[in-house]
Fold DNA-binding response regulator.
Amino acid sequence: MKVAVVSRATDISDVLPTLPLLNHEIQLLKAETNSIRLLADCNVVIIDVTGNDLLAARDFCRTVSASHPDLPVVAAIAESSLIALDGSWAVDDFMLPTSTPVEIDARLRLLLMRRPVPVEQADDSHVAAIGGLVVDDITYVARVDGKPLDLTYKEFELLHFLVKNAGRVFSREQLLQDVWGYDYFGGARTVDVHVRRLRAKLGRDYEGVIATVRNVGYKAIDPEEMD
């Protein structure tokens, strides 16, 4: 098994001390964008996210997952940072620095047994697409023409809901119920704020995918329908 470890550390033992004890081919790569293209022939990638900048670490994990959707991605993370780990990281598993060799080996073997679902073949309930906008609920990554978007969790949930139900008009109150949940006590203008941020992140060519229906709410439309 070929395992890539992406880290700012100079020694793999500084990331997962017991990993070198296993009989696997292990490659240490620098935590930089140029390293992502070197992951094509790896079986599993372990990304060191034990530093203090968890937001940057999450974004790097999402970029790797989007660039190599069939590659199992593992976060090597400190136990104190686990509270920040959620679906928006787009990782398949995590490992603690204290993990034993037996545990690491078992996790790696289970990851190889997983059957990744490519975006173009994924179940309709998980992937929604309009034109070049693809929203993947499996990896929690949205892409515009193949480029991943940096979305917050709620921005992603709102975009996925609208694109999945493209053509249907939803009031702000409906969106609050379906995306934020019945226990949310914020005002309906929260939806407007998230829509505005989404449009900015979608860019000029796709900002119109989220259309405003005057005096009603919002809907997602195909780019070909935009003026």
